[in-house]
Queue: 2 jobs
Job 1
Amino acid sequence: MLKNYLKVALRNLARNKVYSAINIGGLAIGIAACMLIFLYVKDELSYDRHHSKADRIYRVTRDFLSDDGSVSLHLARVAPPFGPLLQQDFPEIERIARTLHTVLTVEDAEKQKTFREEGIFFAEPAFADIFDINMLKGSAHKALQEPYSILLSDKMAEKYYPYEEAVGKVLRLNETLTFKVSAVFKSFPENSHMHPDFLASFSTLNDTTVYGAEALKTNYGNNSFPTYLLLQSDEQTKSLQAQLPAFLDRHLSATDHARSHKPSEFTNLYLQKLTDIHLKSNLDSELEVNGDIDSIMVLGAVAIVILLIASINYVNLSTARSTSRAKEVGVRKVIGAAKHNLVLQFLLESVLITTIATILALGITELALPWLNEFTGKNITTALLSDKWVLLLVLALPLVVGVLAGLYPAFYLSHFQAATVLKGSLSSSSKNPMLRKTLVVLQFSISTVLIIATGIIYQQLMYMQQKDLGFDSDQLVVLPNSSSLTPKYEAFKAELMKSSAIQGAGRSLLVPTDQLLNSMGAQVSKGGSMAPTSTTIKYVAVDHDMLDVYKVKMAAGRNFDRKFASDDTAAYIVNEAAARMIGWHDPNMAIGQTLSYGGNNGRIIGVAQDFHFESLHKEISPMVFMISNSQGYSNISVKVAGDTKEALAHIEETWQEFLPKVPFSYQFMDDLYEKSYQDEAKKGQIFTIFSCIAIVIACLGLFGLASFTTVQRTKEIGVRKVFGASVSGIVALISKDFLKLVLFANLLAWPIAWYAMRKWLSDFAYRIDISTDIFLLATLVAFAVAMVTVSYQAIKAASSNPVDALRTE
């Protein structure tokens, strides 16, 4: 019996090649898109889960509150004293490890090769107990106990010592600190929220020339230390979290904040699950750019939508073709086939189609994966198919989709009465046009929502790229500073300025990018006494030239000036946002006011016009600029005035003259800003691509349905042509019904798209207004796509010989 069902199913597929191709092709594309999204989503959800104790590992975070109780700053890092104190006060904490991430130059002392490295971490020995570190040589725990000991990843060992043993070698960090290579570990997997290339012993920081033991115990203002803890049980999280306010009140002095006798009323500590960091955390001072759980949910929804549209195509075409299979059903019923036999046959046919489609989809997925990896920067492979859950999905997909998509057509076809169909009295009115119309409306409603969403995403990205940032980013070259350049910086700058292609140069701790700013407590003079500000003010250390190089305009007061010696130690410039937050709505009111920042008193000499230092996701933060000691500058910004090629050659030549051992590297400020929106751009492009796939599948279904409709109306078209109907009139007649459905679909799609995209835009502090133009454009696109899809079949039918059409009777 089953063999016969299979033979009939294959015969039907071969007999109806066009419909079979549309069904199988649409399902194959839909399933392939679904698989690609599933592999991407699975990779995103797998972050940090490779650690055996992942369910018990937490990161400690810290926030600061404004006067109104709202969070003004939430940091992914905390102050160094908290680690030992937490371990001391809470026995439920099994292990705790402080880390410090930094960017330094690394020099091979023997070969004198120097590189600027971004993956340097100082870590306590407990780091090796909390995280699973795959050691290739040596012991991580032992190596992290000894001062001036460092572990290399296998990539760094290969980079610095390609043909020799790395363990026992000597590296010099920041040109002053000498470390012995004690061990080599396998690089952390790509699906990790951090990727250390170097793990240096935390005890090295006790040296006062590096940081200082006393500062590690007492400095609660330097929130630069990512801190991780391992609980004895993950069930202890809530009880430990509830005790953290009292912990802060015990250890933080009440004088740290004049508004409250309880420090816990202005700052809090939180425990964040390790496996939540990548997708559910976008805090200040994150180690790397994280993902977004909302984007993952949207992609998952798109995958379901694509599969739904492909399944709708199958249901639509199967029910539309019902009359062509009516006699087959009638004959089978006459010779004794029961209803359940017919249902089983049609379900088997449906499962066969989805099985063929799934096999094709696996091939498409294999071919498309390299593109997806290149596009997303991931390394996803079909080796994931060996995963039991992925394998289960692949095996279950044909059965589940086949049964669900084939269930209605199977029952619908098996419902025909034998006597009726064998008499030939099953007319077109016997079919169920309402269902097919509903499904077409559903398909195009979804497609229109996707078109509108794609348009709004594109408009927002263009807005971010073109928005006035408040400073001149054109032809700004950013160089990483070097500690050995510090004593000879003025000579370096003077040499740079000898070229007419160089307009200016300035140093700063940070440069305007999406990198997050540091923060320290601020107090202002009010009524003769110092009072804390209601919101945290972020700061950037700059030299006298930095703001001029970026052409930041002053709203009041003046810029830093070397003529005033006090500018080096007791002067601040705030931005307009900081002045407004403090209560000075006229920028001139701020000039001359006393400001204490990080414990240093000074006077405000200027108010800079607001400019975007951070991403457009955030409102412009209250900021303060100050002159730092020469060690506080990590970047040199050079303004190019003339030919860029000539300027870069001169900068490199000057760099090599002053720093022959340090590799020359640079970035353009425009490129840095473009990189800061790269994640949004990629997500937008991925969404656009899969939206287009959904629309193509919908068009395939519409094409098949239009083809079948014209065949069903062959006699009507022939009669109309005999009575003088024109080709254009017949095309309009056939297209009209479909276009009505598309119009109705658009009316349904508009409110859904408006609500969804308004919610998406709410994540941006600076965003476009949703205009009706994009909705009208989406409707025109939907109409054009539908018209082109239907017109081919309509014109073909209208151009046929009416004699041939009437012979169909």
Job 2
Amino acid sequence: MFNIISTIGRSIGQLLSKFYPQLILLLLPIIFFYPVFLGYVLFPGAAFINEFYPGKDLPQDNSAIAWSTEKFYGSDPMTAHYPWKLIGIEMMKKGEWPLWNPYSFAGSPLLANNQSALLDPLNVFYLMFDFVTAWNINIILQVVLTGLFCYYLLRDYKLTKFSALWGGMIYAWNGYLANYLHIQVIGHVLIWLPLSILLLRKINREKKLVYFWLLVFSITSIFLSGYLQTTAYALVIIFIFCLICCRTRFFTMVLAFIVSLGLSSVQILPTLEFINKSQRSAAFFYDTFSFLAQPGQLIRFLMPRFFGHPNSENWWGGMLQRDHSYIGVLGIIFALVGIYFVLKNKEFKFWLFLLIFFIIFTVESPLTKFIYDLPIPLLNSVTPSRSLGMVVFPLSILSALGIEKFILAKHKVGKITLIALISLLIIALISALCALFNFPTAQNIQQIIKQSFFYLMVLCLLFSSLVVIYFKKILPTFLILGLLFSLQTTDLLKENKFFTRLFTSSQQLYPQTELTDFLIKHSESRFLSLDLWLLIPNSFLPYHLYTITSYDALHLQNSAQFVEAIFKNIPQTYLLDPRSIRFSNLNTNLASMLNIRFFLSLSPLAKTDFNFIGKIGSAFIYENPGVLPYGFLVDNFQITDEKQQLSAMFDPTTDFSKSVFLYEKPLVSISPDNKGSVNLLQRGYRSVEWSVFTPEPQILFIAETYDDGWQAYIDGEKTKVYQANGVFQAVAVPSGKHTVKLFYNPGSFQIGLFISGTTLLLLFLVIALRPDFFQKNHTHR
């Protein structure tokens, strides 16, 4: 019996010795995110309950509502990514392509909005599990897979298990990934970057078909993961790495890229078309330079709380998201050691080059401003601070190299480590002085000393003590390394927990309230919130409520400009905020045409033509008595250009129930003074159907955003969709009783679907008929 137990113990010990890095990278996220196993959701829902209405009207029993009551500065998961994903997956489960979002902006493309990431391969979990479970899985997988793939890449560089684990931990738990963890689209791009580099290295050495197909899958996943800017960075890194380090296999990489491009066309083509139609292509986009990191802000790589912390409500350093890329003090120290050795190691020089390149791209300088002023398409519409995600990747690799040299070359590296530590303190001092030069207050200085310098000194003291003990051989090597790893891991988790440990009770995720129940009951018409803090943008999507406002990185430019003109009550097309559309003035006539029935406000309206019908919670509710239906017949039209049309539409004498403004004459003759009837038969996600009766030809106006992807059919025969009343839709209906159906199916999606389907079919044929194609045609040269 004792022998059996002893044998089992030895076997377990051997397994742990062999696989301890993988176990740590796998189990640590599971332990850290343990509340998900208690029914909680990895989602910053506390903000919805504690800061916004109508959630704020709920009983404030935080123990029942949210795991975390901390303030969350950054509402994108709540106002964008979760709602988009929710309605998109809902459509897919019903067998529909998620092409159109009918609830926001009076209708807007959904799949073409790449940040919805509805074709991300990891979305398979949404088809296997309920939405909340799949959401949690996808967030935890970001940490698990980034760590594991970085670990295996570093092992491929012949680093020891411990050094590879060190780099994998930094890449998985760095502040940048933690900051965007709930958004997912950025993290899901970063997952596949180290795997792609690893596969390129393997392809460069071996002729195994499996590596090629895995590379195709990895690059395709990068294309489909959702965040266009990070995707572009990742693809550039892969391309340059192959060009510099894997030249003999460059053709293989190009082939993999072409295949991936073909597979991803169903997403890429609609997205490119949407960008071309969107506000991102406009010359008036926001100031890119305001999103550059200041040199002094790099101090947060060493002292993450130098500028305070939102959790303590003492933040004074600008936008939090663009600067938080903390990799740990020990991580930086060993990265500096790695930089010293990289100069003598050809394989790692690429990562030093990459680090310098993206720092230049991120930090404000004359060179950076020159780069972003270049007439390169979309360059002036990116957010430069997103480059920090690419800085973290080479830092993780260089830090792993640094601790590798620390382990293997003790005496020489001891001096280098000491120099790195001194360099770190000098850098910290210089950066602090730069930051203080811009933000000098007595309160800030006191806060910095208390929260940052003291913490940095303690970490450096502990590290120095461990280094001395290590070189004096006072304790076993494995114990010192374990203490170093524990110190680094604790440091990372401590600083990043604010972003990674935001949980919401699944029962209180977009909770039903008296106000939302009222709006759901009247959801055949649109509502409009007049306050930013009341039903914040896109929070209405889970309730399937229609409105004309929203928040989105991409939306149709003509629609956004037109609606903004309506809201400002000025007959000009311009756009102040390129990402969101909000209401500031009430134009009763236009609001009626837009099918807006209810107006919500947190305070009484001083002067209005709307009827006050009551107060629900903190919301005052007003009804528009003159609201027009979502679709209605008119018997008169006027042909105008854009300027004339806007002026006419802002004319208070215009009767939208009788006349429509078009840019071109209908193909059928419209008879005036005729009355018909319209009955809405079905209103789906990307289709709408009416039963129409009219004695004479008339025009059916639809208060849905116009896009050339909309197709109209009358009794099954295709007809033209006209752009009407600025940016909405109209169909000329002949006399008689007809069924009119509109269906959204853009050409870019059809072409992309054909290319992707053809590419997939060809791949299956190659695998089935020529399984040795790769080996025969792509050998080493």
